[in-house]
Amino acid sequence: MRTQVAIIGAGPAGLMLGRILERAGVDAVILERRSAEYVLGRIRAGVLEQGSIELLDAVGVGERMHREGLVHDGVELSFDGDTHRLDFTSLINRHVMVYGQTEVTHDLMNARAASGATTIYEASDVRLLDFDGDGARVEYRKDGQTHVLECDFIAGCDGYHGVSRVSVPASALQTFERVYPFGWLGVLIDQPPVADELIYAHHERGFALCSMRSPARSRYYVQVAQSERVEDWSDDRFWDELRSRLNPATAEALKTGASIEKSIAPLRSFVAEPLRFGRLFLAGDAAHIVPPTGAKGLNLAMSDVKALGTALVEYYGEKSAAGIDNYSQTVLRRIWKAERFSWWMTSLLHVFPETGAFGRRIQRAEFDYLTGSHVAQQSLAENYTGLLD
Ligand code: APR
């Protein structure tokens, strides 16, 4: 089989790239290790920046998002129970949309199925070959047989644990990493959210986040030590811990019950450089990881593939390599700004083992500065709703 662009991974990055290319008449095949059902079963992020909303609209898959998604004009920050609402609309006239990554994936999958474009699910042992030469190849196993996909370019959209990044010789790649000494214990529950907007809370017992997926489905998180095991957290223990970190009125209003999903996610900042090696490009979680504080992971994946898709369309349409030549440099600038913001939000809101009394006073001062300064609030709002470039 031959295609113009072989896309590895059918997460939001791979599917969105496929959609951008398909709309411009560029042929692409997606190879995905898992089944479509498995991909759709993953519970992931849920906040879309304005740029991601616009991209979904631009490629014709925004209709259900506008119908079912929740427009959020602000967030609430809380520090030891003192709360402050940031109103994005009045601060910078922008907003975000709460619409689960699972739903975005679903909409992109449906659009791809309707277009007849090829996605090969349950493709195992994917191998990236000859991407430093004149024509690349991807080998994979499916139904007991080895297949070869010949292509002009490979887009590695296969997440942090994928095969694409590790196919690059280690000497050609520089990586930058910070692993945080804690994780987020997350619970999904079919109960209305405790508030209309997200609540980010710093408490001496640790960070907490009240989030949601819909008016009837809530997502809550508490910071836990790296050593914690999810089996040790009964629903009751989770709710008690969450309540203890919220302000009393919010804790009182919390609607609890049996969780429908519970898991612990580690927190990590990670960037690989560069993001192009000959005919191979990296995008999304394959290229970078941010801690979830700040809701940047999915949005960065969207901005990466918007840039990559545009560059590849330009390459085929206008016979210009300028876009693909600049891809790595262009997206890395944006990636590092999102890494900075995610690291900053994480540093402000979490309790670090080494923080100590001085560090907590500094965190409190940061919160007080933020709540007292219009300019500081504008800066947070600008970053949270998504930088323009
Ligand atoms: N071969 C083929 N597919 C693979 C391989 C492989 N060797 N390894 C991983 N994959 C697939 C995974 O099964 C997954 O479906 O690649 C896909 C990668 O998807 P995601 O992990 O969702 O990454 P990405 O599309 O970059 O999405 C961005 O933003 O909200 C954050 O972390 C969250 O997943 C989200 C990410």
Automatic annotation (TrEMBL):
Listed EC numbers: 1.14.13.2
FAD-binding domain residues: 2-342
Enzyme class name: oxidoreductase
Keyword check for Oxidoreductase: yes
Alphabetic keyword roster: FAD, Flavoprotein, Monooxygenase, Oxidoreductase
A GO term, aspect molecular function: FAD binding
Database matches in PANTHER family: P-HYDROXYBENZOATE HYDROXYLASE, TRK SYSTEM POTASSIUM UPTAKE PROTEIN
Name of the featured protein: 4-hydroxybenzoate 3-monooxygenase
Lineage, top ranks: Bacteria, Pseudomonadati, Pseudomonadota, Alphaproteobacteria, Hyphomicrobiales
Gene: pobA
